[in-house]
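Why does this matter for the project? Reviewers at the last site visit asked to see concrete outputs rather than summary tables. In response, this paragraph embeds two records directly. Each consists of the residue sequence and, immediately after it, the corresponding structure tokens. Nothing has been edited or filtered.
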Amino acid sequence: MKLSGSGERLTIFIGESDRHRHRPLHTEIVERARRAGLAGATVVRGIEGFGASSHLHTTRVLRLSEDLPVIVTIIDVTERIDAFLEVLDELVIEGLVVREPVEIVTYRARPA
């Protein structure tokens, strides 16, 4: 897939303990993004954060949390992001989803 020029970054903020049918939610999002033909997805585990409930989630020893923040980032063209938002609406029950314009400079795979 060749990808360059204008696109969008879709960022999904969820918790590590969030599930979809007994599977980690971030895994379900990445797999659905792949099936939808999106350019790629990355999952990053946070070390500290809070969301709408203002409950602090942290790795600090005195306040050990089992529900650390997880961020899923997807970058693709607007049309594919638009279509994937319907999937996210079904999956993300609690969390934050944001989209923002980006300029895609380079997107390459290793030669086969």
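We now turn to the second protein, recorded in exactly the same manner.
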Amino acid sequence: MIEIILEKKQELDFDKVKEMIEEKKANVGAGYLTDQGALFLVAADLGVSLEKSPKTEYNIKDIFVGARDITIIGRIITINPIRTFQKRDSDQQSRNRIITIYDKDSSIRIKLWDELVDFPEQLNLRHGDLIKVSNCQVKSGMDNKPIVNLGSNGSIDLVVDDNKYQVPTLPEITESIDDLSVPKENLVVIGKINSDPRISEFTNSRGERAKSLHLELVNEDNTRKIRSVIWNINEENVPKSLTTNSRIKLIGVKTKIGNPNFGNGDLEIHGDEGTVLEFVDQEKPIENYILRIISRRVDRSENKLLCMAVDKESRPYFVNIDTKLFELEINPNDIIECYPNRVLGNSIEVTDQDSFLHILKEEQDLPRGEQFEAKIRDISVANRPYIVEAIVLQIPNKTDVNTKSGELVTVADTIIGDDTGEIRLVGWRQNSNLVSQLKIGERIKVFAANAVSGKEGDMELSLKPYSEIITVS
């Protein structure tokens, strides 16, 4: 009865209604009224009828924890993949998944359980569809926000008549980079990719190894840059070719205050496994690349050949080649033509049956490796590889360090020098072995290292997956 009053009179809260009940009991019918009897009088004063059954169809903003058997109308913004887990109290497996919907005022997550997790595929649901969710109950999520649970008695129906409900479409709620002003959830954002996208691994909140997609989005005139991260991403959902200057739409993301350690202090965009990435313009990816190999390294444990290569404009590329598919002897200064199965920024993968690669015998007008050779004094922080010939001046130091993300990794460093100066050479993770094996006084040639700003602000040479070190006699 109190819930009915609170639904009708949202300016009141539970404690205020209880106070009104006590006043009625004290002033009107002292010794004669029960709490429920007094509540009838309070409801009459407020003009609320307790005879009517509470409504079952709710606007999302009016949903409260504890509501049962309710119906919600909303438009889908994200459909997360199915999660399978072991129940704590038994050996049985259970499945669930999250659908997020919105209406003109708010949004909410719907958790489907067990046999209902297949509803999206059975109904061929997509983001942007208007649905009716019936016979559900509202609980408190782990973030203390209401979350709708849909069990065996619940149902989802596709709403065909969009005009009956005033729920804006996805294009109507789409925002540009310039529109982003405050932290907000369940957004659709359009922007232009400004930096080479990359995929990295991390440990998620469930203790599982997962992958994240990192990219920087800018507005049309390049005056605002927003760091963007899609967590727990499935690589199969990333477009085959995702390169700089592409205009993309991120469906189902949120904005939050940026971490100054990673960005410029502006807002950041964050998504998850339910986020959808679409091209705004019809993209026609480059089908083939003609490149000159600058450096190469064989990873026998993964059957991969990791190469640094450049195109005719001297743009650097990281080429990942599956040596089981392409048993070719590829060496520095060779020219290759490849049809990749995946292009992510300046990272090219030639790793499945849909890809192709061969060595071109005829000479092409492409930069040679010699143009990347540099003296230490001429090195500067830039998006380009360097080839440096130098002498090892210090016994390498190898240690384990904690990264900003909390990951424990191995890093090795030493000092190398030539007749123009000295610089620190650093190798992280697998590259630490390349550095730690160096000997003081040894003359070496470092291929395809990048100049970066070190933790103390000094410039250093950082080895990449495709970097190579050889001994010069």
